[in-house]
């Protein structure tokens, strides 16, 4: 009777080091979020003076103060203003960028190549370079201190990155589907709405998610165009919180930061699967 020797597998030190490194990087990335949550519950004298992560006792009054809002404007009004601007930007980018992308990806017209190259070149143009001309135009139209300067450009396909994203996705769709639709009597618009648009859902979801996050976190553009506290968003209200109460309002300010973070987290979690699918199949993978 022969016994087979027990073969010990070598310890995969490289795999262990990879997991340890990944966990360390995860903790480093999550530490600011943990610090934000902990600081939102700290008393006012511990926010700056103490280096401890956990508060000595939970100061729930920070959240009650944050819910009262700033400058006699409730946080629900600030939240609704932010949702209105972000929702309008999402709707505008999804509609206009998908139409522009369909024209570049499927239609044949003169100067299509140069126009597409010019549009791609605008991605490298800094936002601040066009801010002053845009402000002058909206000021002459009497639209300053309204939400239109923050929403209207989105309906004009000004976000070249999203146009390029959707173009790359549409180029991967089989043309036979549109040809079959044309044989059935569909024109370009019906082919777009009935055939192409439903198949482009992953790219549209990706556009919606990034637009929502970027618009929600936008501070500089909203600071330029909005003056009335009743029209302020949550990002502008955070600045007003500090200006109005100085250092004594750090606790409520961080509490309002947590409240402002929740819609982004929920929006991302709701569409996370479609975001990964859209990025994987949009052509940005290389």
Automatic annotation (TrEMBL):
Database matches in InterPro entries: MetI-like, MetI-like_sf
The organism named in the record is Streptomyces regalis
What is the membrane topology listed in the Swiss-Prot or TrEMBL record?
A: Multi-pass membrane protein
Instruction: Look up the coiled coil feature and give its residue ranges.
Output: none
Q: Name one Pfam family in it.
A: BPD_transp_1
Query: Gene3D superfamilies annotated for this entry?
Result: MetI-like
Specify the ABC transmembrane type-1 domain's residue ranges.
79-271
- Identify the main location: membrane
Query: In which compartments does the protein localize?
Result: Cell membrane
What is this protein identified as? Sugar ABC transporter permease
Keyword set includes Cell membrane: yes
Q: Which CDD domains match?
A: TM_PBP2
């Amino acid at each position: 009777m022969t016994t087979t020797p027990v073969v010990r597998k070598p310890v995969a030190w490289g795999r262990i080091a990879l997991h340890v490194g990944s966990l360390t990087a995860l903790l480093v990335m999550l530490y600011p979020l943990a610090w934000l949550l902990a600081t939102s519950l700290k008393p006012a004298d511990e926010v700056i003076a103490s280096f401890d992560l956990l508060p000595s006792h939970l100061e729930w009054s920070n959240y009650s103060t944050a819910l009262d809002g700033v400058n006699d404007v409730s946080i629900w009004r600030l939240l609704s203003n932010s949702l209105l601007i972000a929702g309008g930007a999402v709707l505008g980018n999804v509609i206009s960028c998908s139409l522009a992308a369909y024209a570049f990806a499927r239609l044949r017209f003169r100067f299509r190549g140069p126009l597409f190259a010019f549009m791609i070149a605008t991605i490298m143009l800094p936002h601040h370079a066009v801010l002053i001309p845009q402000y002058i135009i909206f000021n002459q139209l009497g639209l300053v201190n309204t939400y239109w300067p923050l929403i209207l450009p989105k309906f004009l396909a000004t976000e070249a990155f999203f146009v390029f994203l959707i173009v790359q996705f549409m180029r991967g769709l089989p043309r036979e589907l549109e040809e079959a639709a044309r044989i059935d009597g569909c024109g370009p618009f019906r082919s777009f709405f009935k055939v192409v648009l439903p198949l482009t859902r992953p790219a549209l979801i990706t556009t919606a998610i990034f637009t929502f996050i970027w618009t929600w976190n936008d501070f500089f553009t909203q600071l330029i165009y909005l003056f009335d506290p009743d029209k302020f968003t949550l990002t502008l209200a955070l600045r007003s919180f500090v200006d109005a109460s100085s250092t004594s309002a750090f606790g409520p300010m961080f509490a309002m930061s947590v409240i402002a973070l929740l819609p982004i987290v929920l929006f991302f979690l709701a569409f996370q699967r479609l975001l990964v699918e859209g990025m994987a199949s949009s052509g940005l993978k290389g």
